[in-house]
From TrEMBL:
Belongs to the NDRG family. The keyword Transmembrane applies. The keyword Metal-binding does not apply. This is Uncharacterized protein. The chain crosses the membrane at residues 102-125. Keywords: Membrane, Transmembrane, Transmembrane helix. Pfam families: Ndr.
Length: 267
């Protein structure tokens, strides 16, 4: 099982601060780099995938996995200091490069979820020779709409003044899970939603706010996607709030190198 595989954790010093990287597997194997969504880390974002025996066996047989956490999102992270520079999305993409250089990695496979998918896509566009392929789940590639920008500003202010309060947790859970998984008045929440709710309580709100602000300042990558010639596989749920974004991104990628998988919301 994934949880029994030897894990090594590193703190990598970058130009924009320290970055936590959890490494699973044999470092002589090809590298798979992961980047999670907002307020998540490798445990809360990817453990469901890696606890699948079939997926776990395939990935660890073929890859060494390098889980990069957004700044201050690792387990036990301290609050980011008020004097520390708030990284932009370009800074976050550059941190990925610095992590690769730290471990002496060449070209790698990348797997990102939503905000993490944006960071890795931007990384692939800036450093094309360092990316063999992209696996993107519910990805973002455009600048935030006015609606998203305003919602993110509300959430940012709530995080700043009230921390990881109930409203913020509900907004994040709607971002991560479909209505079927979240449950309803008649149906209780699934175990995975309850576990994620508990994990969100462990996040440092100021750290989450900084990542959120970076993502709220992101630019549109659409025009550069056609020049991206690494293999790209996009997954999105049929009822995902990011469904239209995934369709747009797929339409902008070169069809010779990309594919879209739409997942049934009941799965």
């Amino acid at each position: 099982m994934y949880c029994k595989i030897n894990l090594q954790e590193y703190l990598v010093k970058t130009r924009c601060g320290m970055v936590s990287v959890a490494v699973f597997g044999d470092q002589d194997k090809p590298a798979l780099v992961t980047y999670p969504d907002l307020a998540l880390n490798h445990i809360s974002c990817f453990q469901g995938l890696f606890f699948s025996p079939e997926v776990n066996s395939f990935l660890l047989h073929n890859f060494c996995i390098y889980h990069i956490s957004p700044p201050g999102h690792e387990v036990g992270a301290a609050p980011i200091g008020s004097d520390d520079l708030m990284p932009s999305v370009d800074d976050l993409a550059d941190q990925v490069l610095e992590v690769l250089n730290f471990f002496g990695l060449g070209a790698v496979m990348c797997m990102g979820v939503t905000a993490g998918a944006y960071v890795l896509t931007l990384f692939a566009m800036k450093y094309r020779q360092r990316v063999l392929g992209l696996i993107l789940v519910s990805p973002l590639c455009r600048a935030p709409s006015w609606t998203e920008w305003l919602l993110n500003k509300v959430m940012s202010n709530l995080l700043y003044f009230y921390g990881m309060c109930g409203v913020v947790k509900e907004l994040l859970l709607k971002r991560y899970f479909s209505q079927e998984v979240r449950g309803s008045v008649e149906e209780s929440e699934s175990d995975i939603v309850q576990a994620c709710r508990r994990l969100l309580d462990e996040r440092q709100s100021i750290n989450v706010q900084q990542f959120l602000e970076a993502m709220n300042g992101r630019r549109d990558l659409s025009e550069g996607l056609r020049k991206l010639h690494c293999r790209s596989l996009i997954f999105v749920g049929e009822n995902s709030p990011f469904h239209s974004e995934a369709l747009h991104m797929t339409s902008k990628l070169d069809r010779r190198y990309s594919a879209l998988v739409e997942v049934d919301s009941k799965c």
